[in-house]
Amino acid sequence: MPVCQPAEWDAHQAVWSAWPSHADLWQEDLEPARAEVGALFKAIADVDPVTQKPRGEALKILACGDEAVTSAKAALAGTGAEIFAATFGDIWLRDTAPIFVRNANKLEAACFRFNGWGGKYVLEGDDGVAGFVAACAQLTANLNNWVLEGGSIDVDGQGSALTTRQCLLNANRNPTLTQADIEARLKSGLGIEKLIWLGDGLLNDHTDGHIDNIARFIAPGVVACMEPSGSDDPNRDALGAIIADLKAATDINGRKLDVQTIPSPGLVPDDEGEPIPASFMNFYIANTTVVVPVYGTAFDDAAVAAIAKLFPGRKVVGLRANHILTGGGSFHCITQQQPLVR
User: For the whole model, what pTM was predicted?
Assistant: First the structure.
């Protein structure tokens, strides 16, 4: 396989993310979201309390505007974070930054078109983030002239990937591409040989069913997903279908998937009582930690404990992400790992 997107549990050189920067977007949630993002970054850096040196991975953080740069530097002092003054619309670098791939013995940046999740949120600067990050990382940018968001696929590092028809086959992304076209382009650009197609994602998810909210590879042949929690879980039917589809699937090596389930958050309403797409699956797998978003539900502790059993070699921590979620995503959505060169 000449090109390969490494699995997230593979060793990282750094993580790329962004600091909440736009008061007009975040409004009253700006400072609370900054506090939640800062806690995430500190958990990823994993500073040793004795040596005061990071033992996790390097933080590469974009910030837009002088005030945001100053805020990020102050909040992340002591983590070793490198702050880059940049122009971007919002912080969702899983979707706007490049996807880092290995090509033989070197690392490259696969850059895709970004159209604001099917035209819903087109913000100035977001379509230039991939090229900017590739240049800052001093990597060759491989330009792929079609729309793909990093949160819409999840890989095992061996050539298998998970995705949803709701997102990748949505006419608001690539209306002229067939399923076969998309599979061929994923093989060429990211080295994905076997695509496992699921159906729909979470209710009210503006990403049209991103996979990182519903199912994740946690090891070759092993996938985690959520089971419904509570009688009023708004995603009961969708989660049941996901479990069934995963249990019927095989990976690139012909193995039936080992499906591990954790509780879902259940019903998490917004201020108007509408269900929001809260997910425990939106965790980030860092070098020394796994950071799980929690929302103050009755199922938080059980979910973090279940995920901890899946990652015995890492410290698993649950951190609140309610204010980040007001912007439309969570921890995985704002992070993009840069693997080590091998």
Answer: 0.97
Q: What pLDDT is stored for residue 129 in this prediction?
A: 98
Domains of the chain, with CATH numbers? 3-339 (3.75.10.10)
| Contact present, 212 and 281 (Cβ < 8 Å) | yes
Find how far residue 142's CA is from the centre of its chain: 21
Confidence of residue 136 (pLDDT cuts 50, 70, 90): very high
Residue 120 gets which letter from DSSP?
T
Indicate which residues carry an active-site annotation: 333
Residues 6+ apart with CB under 8 A from 265: 229, 278, 279, 280, 295, 297, 299, 300, 303
The CA distance from 290 to 292, in Å, is: 6
Backbone dihedral angles phi then psi of residue 103, each to the nearest 5 degrees: -130, 105
**DSSP class per residue in 134-192:** HHHTT--EEEEEEE--GGG-EE-SSSEEEEEHHHHT-TTT-TT--HHHHHHHHHHHH--
Strand partners, 100: 109
Beta pairing partners, 250: 256
Would you say residue 1 has pLDDT above 80?
Answer: no
Q: For 65-109, write each residue's pLDDT tens digit.
A: 999 999 999 999 999 999 999 999 999 999 999 999 999 889 999
pLDDT of res. 93:
98
CB atoms inside a 10 Å sphere around CB 161: 27
What are the structure tokens assigned to 119, written together?
A: 């035209």
